[in-house]
Structure formats: C-alpha cells, structure tokens
Amino acid sequence: MRDILKQIWRFVWIASTGPGRYVSLFLLAVIIACQLAAIQVTLRQVQWSADFFNALQKIDGPAAITQIGVFAILVCISASLYLIARYCKRLLQFRWRQRLSETLLHRWTVGKAYWFLHPSLRSDHSIDNPDQRIAEDCSMFPEFILGGVDGVGRTGVLDFIMSLIGLVSYVMLLWQLSTFALQVSLFGVDIEIPRYMVWAAPIYVLLSTVLTHLLGRQLPGLLMEEQRREADFRFALVNLRENASAIALSHGDAADRKVIARRFDDLFGVWRRVIRREFIYGMFTRPYFQSVLRIPTFLALPAFLAGKITLGGLTQLAAAFGNVVTTLSWLIFNCKFMSDLVATTRRLQGFMTATDGAAHPAGSLQRQVSAGTDLDIRDLHIRAPDGRTLLEIPALSVAQGETVWLSGASGLGKSTLIKALAGLWPQTDGRITLPAGHLVFMPQQVYLPLGSLHDAAVYPADPGSVPAETVERLLRAVGLGARLDAGDDHASGLSVGEQQRLAIVRLIVAKPDWVFADEATSALDLETECNVMALLRSELPQATIVLIAHRSPRGFGDIRRIQLGEGSPVPDGEPAWEPRFSVG
Questions:
Q1: What angle do CA 152, 155, 159 make, to 5 degrees?
Q2: Do residues 323 and 166 touch, judged by C-beta distance below 8 A?
Q3: CA terminus-to-terminus distance, the chain
Q4: What is the DSSP track for 126-185?
Q5: Across the strands, what pairs with 182?
Q6: Which of 39, 208, 221, 250 could form a disulfide with 166 if both were Cys (CB 3.0 to 4.6 A apart)?
Q7: CA 398/CA 405 separation, integer angstroms
Q8: Cα torsion at 426, 431, 436, 441 (round to 10°)?
Q9: What are the backbone dihedrals phi and psi of residue 491, each rounded to the nearest 5 degrees, phi first?
Q10: In Å, how far from its chain's centre is CA 554?
Q11: Which of 23-27, 149-153, 216-220 has maximum average pLDDT?
C-alpha cells in the first residue's frame, strides 16, 4: 500500500508541476473552494429538511411555501457551485493529462527509448503497449484523482478528501441531533446506548468495507490484465489495416483473422473473469447502494415512534446520518474505481521504470567522436539478442571522401553494423571512432512520416526550412514528377522503389558529410539506380558514402569494396591471394 501511494503521489506531482503550474494551482483552489461551499449548502439542506417536514406536520401552508422558495435558492446555489467546479475540474484534468503525456512522450523519445525497448532487442525492461500508456493512462489518471463526470461511482480521490473534511461537520450535526438513547433488553439485561445513531454509522460502514474488500480484492490485477489484452487486440486490428496491401496480395486474410480471433479469445477469457468477479462483488455493493439512504430512517424510527423527535427531526436525522454513511462508504462505492486507479498507476510506474533503464547498454562498446576526418573501427564484436556472434571486425578504416561498398552474405549482420555505428545496438563490444561532421544513416526500410510528399522529402528537417522549388526539382530528378503533375502530394501509397527514390532526395536535402545507407537501391532497376546514385554523388561531391548492398552499386566512379565475412577487404580486381582478414 505504501508503494502504490508513493507512486500515486509521484504522478500527481509530475502532473501539477512544470509550465503552467500556477494556472493549475488556481484551478485547484477554485475547485476546493466550490466543494467547501457545497458542504455548507448541504448542511443547510439538512436543516431545510427539518423545517419543511415540520411545516407539513403542523399543516402550516405559508411556512411550507416559504421553505419551497428556500429550497429553490439552495438548488440554484448548489448547481452553480457544481457547474463551476466541474468546468474547472475538466480544464485541470486536461492540463494534468497534457503534462503527464509530455513527460512520458519525452521519456519515450529522448534517448531513443522507443528503440532500445523494442521487442526485437529482447531488453530486460519491457513495456506492453506504450501507446496505451501515453494515450489512455495519462488521460485516466487525472480523472481518477480529480473525479469523473457524474455519478457516485465516478468521484475521485480529491472528492474523497473533501468529503472527509465535510465529515467533521456531518458528525457534529449528527451528535447534536442524536440526543436520545436506544434501550434494549438482551438476555434479561437492560442495555442503554446513548446517541446510538452516532456509533451505528461507523460500525455499519466498517463491517461493509471489510466485506467489500474481501469480495473485490482481485479486481485490480484482473482489470490490469484486461487493459493489456484490449490493447493487444486493438494492435492486431491496426496491424491488419497498416499492412492491408501485403496481406491481400499474400491471401493472408484467414491467417491474420486467426491471429485476431486468438487475441480476442484471450481478451474474452480475462473479460469473463472480470465480470464474474464484478458479479460477486455487486451481490453486496448493489443492495448496499440502494439501501444505504434508507437505513438511517429505519434506525431513527424507534425514537420517532416513541415521540422523542418530530417528523422533521426524523428526516433531518436521516439526512445527517446518510451524509456520514455516504462519506464513510466511499471505498465501497468506488472499489472498482480504486482498482482502476491502482492498475493505471502500476502501468505508468512500469513505463517510467522501463524508460529509466532503456539506454543501459548490454555490451562494452566505446563509441566516440574524434576531431579527425576518418572512421576507425577496432575489435568490434556484434552479437544477436540471444548472445550469438553476428559479426567481428578486427580493424577497419574509411577515409573522408571515399565511396565504400560493404558486401556480405545475407544474415551476416550488415544492417546491424549500421545500427552499431549509430549507437543503436546495445549488444556490441569494441571501439568505434566516428569522424567529426554531419552523419546521416539511411535504414533499409524507408520511413514515411504523416504529412505531404514535401514533408516526407525533407524529414526530419522542418518543412519550411527547405525551399519548395528545391524539393520539387529533386523529386522530379529521381522520377517522382508524375505524382506532382497528378496533384498527388501524399506520401502514403508509394511503392518500395518510389520510397527509396524519396529517401535519396531526403539524403541530398540533409547535406551530410557522411552517408551510411543500407540497401538504398535494392528495389530499383539498374538504370534508375545509376541515375539516382549519380545524382546523389553530384549533389554531395565531398560526402563520404558507405553503402551496404548485395550487388555492386551503380552510378559512382571509383568505389572501394569491403567483403564482410570470409572475403577479401581489398577492392575488386585485386588477386585472390592478397592477405585477408575475417570480418565475422
């Protein structure tokens, strides 16, 4: 319990601090002021209940009409306070959500945690469905703390704290009204309980709370599992949409449908356990909810029948008792609500813990940037996530201005070498000395950001930082002018070959000093490859270009070939008996 309270406080602190914290504090102050005023209105309504029903008992028409007017005023004040507090609460919820989302998104992106926690790396830390943490949990947590929209079951922790403040006033009022004693005879012994209405409330709620805890203690774990299964099922549906073309061409409808159906079956299994537990939990809480406001009347009925209190006193006493019991019963009414809060907090804490250790490398790679102009690799050992050795490079140097072709068998680890050079492969030992200057890495799979073709061509730069005329010239130079002529400025829908040509434009726009490209032209025909690579070299005449490819790159002049694995590191055409070194 102590740990979960610390975690809740941690996220409340994150949400309420940072930029705009004074506005958030002001909104919170308005909410608290409105709720404190609402407590006073509730106390006045309790008094109104006695005045109104006493007037009815006396058949005093003018007094009853006056009390109807008082009731209308109280309702207007209560409604105004509620609406103001609700409006400020919704604003504060959004501000807190914004702050939490910014914090988690920062942790997820800065330091490339989204990559180091990728399932393919088999990291010791893992996050299931990080998109859900940022999108949903950051929205749910403020609602759990500040309260939901309407209804008893949607009150938040702040509402509970304010209710505890009001509880003092309600107990004092109940003490003033419970001036009579309960007299019973048990086994021939007369027992008198003074102010029994005061003692009945906490005992009644305590027993009910213990029973509620026993019936609902399994809910937090089940609800957390349900959320995870929901996210897995939703991800399978998104995967079907994102890969519609490949699935349709492969006639993989049935196979993917089975995967989706299997994930839904997993969700359904957890869901059945949740509703079964909710049913057991509701067997007590629902009758309790429906009867809790009637119990006070039944308990005060002996005093009314004995003539110790009037009808107005009976209703006033019942209202005071009801407020005490309702406040003390917060945990009973909000057991599932609190279970959701605990589950959400645990998921957020899991996210924070995972991102804390995301950038801790599994190897002993020494990666540094020197003031020199060459790339130097020494004693490099690249391993797979399962520990297998993929690639070994005893020594390798690339001078500034060279065009280098790295070749080797499929599965050797060539693409992983690019990741290691970029500092993105944690299972790496050795030393990499990078040259000074602007380095750009082009992955094998071209990323298409959301936006226009122009945005995709200059990514990750600001679209406004590159003249549109320059981008259009380069797009036409690589053969994408037809899309521009057709008025199609969308990056989506590009074929693999078109994506690779777009990536060449992106390289030229970036104007790097060093280019590391992985299978940059694998989907292009030889003529197109020759044209786009010649364009790349002409636009970047001073750049050092390191290419990974299975076939000899076209469009360049002199090119140095390095055979990774059991091959020769010397340029093509040298005698096969030249000294070799094994790179892998």
A1: 120
A2: yes
A3: 52
A4: --S-HHHIIIIIHHHHHHHHH--SSSGGG--HHHHHHHHHHHHHHHHHHHHH--SEEEEE
A5: 193
A6: 39
A7: 11
A8: -40
A9: -80, -25
A10: 46
A11: 23-27
pTM summary value: 0.70
Supply 40's token pair.
């006073």
Beta carbons of 430 and 377 less than 8 angstroms apart: yes
Q: Report how far residue 341's alpha carbon sits from residue 346's, in angstroms, rounded to the nearest whole number.
A: 9
Amino acid at 233: F
Round to whole Å and give the CA distance between 284 and 280: 8
Structure tokens at 123: 């990291």
Instruction: Region of 430 please: left (phi>0), alpha (psi -120 to 50) or beta.
Output: left
What does the alpha-carbon distance between residue 321 and residue 174 come to, in Å, rounded to a whole number?
A: 6
- 3-state helix, strand, coil split of the chain in percent (to 5) is 60, 10, 25
Of 36-40, 48-52, 278-282, 296-300, minimum mean pLDDT range: 296-300
| Per-residue tokens: 530 | 């020759």
Task: Look up tokens 């609190």; give the residue.
Answer: 338
Of 116-120, 265-269, 275-279, the least confident: 116-120
Rounded distance between C-alpha atoms, residue 431 and residue 429, angstroms: 7
- Rounded Cα–Cα distance for residues 469 and 176 (Å): 83
Strand 389-398, strand 181-186: pairing: unpaired
CA 446 to chain centre: 26
What is the distance between the alpha carbons of residues 348 and 355, in angstroms, rounded to a whole number?
Answer: 11
Report the residue count for the chain. 584
Strand partners, 440: 515
Q: With bands split at pLDDT 50, 70 and 90, how would you rate the model's confidence at 292?
A: low
What is the rounded CA–CA span in Å between residue 336 and residue 340?
6
Q: Are strands 389-398 and 375-383 parallel, antiparallel or unpaired?
A: antiparallel
Which element (helix H / strand E) includes 462? none
Residues 54 and 313: their CA atoms lie apart, in Å, by 8
Give bridge partners of residue 562 from the DSSP assignment.
406
Rg (CA), the chain: 35
> How far is the C-alpha of 204 from the C-alpha of 70, rounded, in Å?
33
Paired sense of beta strands 403-407 and 514-518, if any = unpaired
Strands across the sheet with 375-383, in order?
365-369, 428-434, 375-383, 389-398
Cβ pair 216, 332 in contact under 8 A: no
Closest CA to 306 of 215, 189, 184, 201: 184
